[in-house]
Design a protein that fits this description.
Helices cover 20% and strands 27% of the residues. It is built from four helices and 15 strands. Helix 2 packs parallel to helix 3.
Length: 340
């Protein structure tokens, strides 16, 4: 009996140590350059005076047209089926292959296989579509010390067919809460492209469900303070991705109840430094509500995905892609930027 009690006490102590260690490492929210995962491809050219940049929040492969999501007012935590995720990821890969001429691709909600996408590795398919590029990946949500099959690894990726000279990350303020003790490390990973034009390209994915947009507004202001400093050092700066703020006014028909728009806030124009500009498409929406599966004309849609460029960058063209939200709850946007 004594041996049994000693064994149980040992198991309880080990479990307690594990829980403490798990909560400790997953409660850290400060992003560092050491957290970046880089891969290089040989014989890439340097950047010229014009860049084509594509952005897309791919919704971890689990938020295609047939999905709703509880955090947006829906009922579901998981996608409709494993087959639905496979179809989403196949569609994402196919579209990215069609955009091979884009110089730089910025991906948000880039996910390894885990419970929320039925263990379909979306990142692997993205990297297959965008192979033979320099790349940079930052996991802003990662469950450290959690074993497979419960492990989750989501984040942002930058894939460039022009050579990346160096890389860094801009740490941003975090929300107080987390999921099962895991806090998201908000940050913007960035690259300095090789070449005389001094391009700095950064990915952004701000908070989405913070009260009164307080956290995402702080994140925005800190990000723009960094961007101004980067510009003043002689760089040409382009920041692209999911701002979770309405970048342009839109008025697409919908029947969505107002209570499902609790997350929607306009971009605060006073946060845009003088001479900096927003590049976004007001004609093709980039995001839909997830309170229900997508039905055209019913779900509210608007534009929260786009770019901010520094005063020494001209916006040649910006356009969204109408994919009918088939593969994700966001749609891709592409920018042609030119050095001024």
């Amino acid at each position: 009996m004594k041996r049994v009690l000693i064994t149980l006490a040992g198991v309880a102590a080990a479990a307690a140590i594990y829980v403490v260690a798990f909560l400790y490492v997953n409660h850290q929210v400060s992003a560092r350059a050491e957290d970046l995962h880089r891969a290089t491809s040989p014989d890439l050219a340097e950047a010229g005076d014009t860049l084509d940049i594509l952005i897309w929040n791919i919704g971890y492969g689990g938020l295609g047209a047939g999905s709703d999501f509880f955090a947006d007012g829906g009922e579901s935590t998981f996608p409709p089926s494993r087959r639905a995720v496979r179809d989403n990821v196949a569609g994402i890969e196919s579209f990215l292959i069609s955009q091979q001429d884009a110089d730089v691709v910025l991906i948000q909600e880039l996910a390894r296989g885990g419970p929320v996408n039925y263990w379909i590795d979306a990142r692997a398919r993205v990297e297959h579509a965008l192979r033979d590029r320099d790349s940079l990946v930052f996991a802003d949500f990662r469950t450290r010390l959690l074993p497979w099959p419960l492990r989750m690894d989501h984040g942002q990726g930058i894939y460039s067919q022009v050579r990346i000279g160096s890389a860094d990350v801009v740490a941003l303020p975090a929300e107080d809460g987390g999921l099962l003790g895991v806090r998201r490390r908000y940050a913007s990973p960035l690259v300095h492209l090789a070449g005389d034009q001094n391009w700095t390209i950064a990915s952004v994915h701000l908070a989405a469900f913070d009260d009164d947009a307080a956290v995402r507004t702080r994140q925005l202001r800190e990000l723009m303070a960094w961007a101004v400093s980067e510009y003043e050092s002689g760089r040409r700066v382009v920041i692209g991705g999911d701002w979770n703020l309405q970048l342009v006014e839109t008025d697409f028909p919908h029947t969505t109840d107002e209570r499902f728009l609790f997350w929607l806030f306009p971009f605060p124009q006073d946060a845009l430094p003088e001479g900096w500009r927003i590049a976004a498409d007001a004609e093709i929406p980039s995001v839909r509500t997830n309170h229900q599966a997508y039905v055209p004309g019913e779900n509210y849609v608007t534009t929260i995905d786009g770019f901010i460029v520094s005063p020494n960058v001209d916006i040649v063209d910006v356009h969204g892609f109408d994919l009918g939200f088939a593969h994700a709850d966001h749609q891709p946007v592409r920018l042609r930027a030119q050095a001024r």
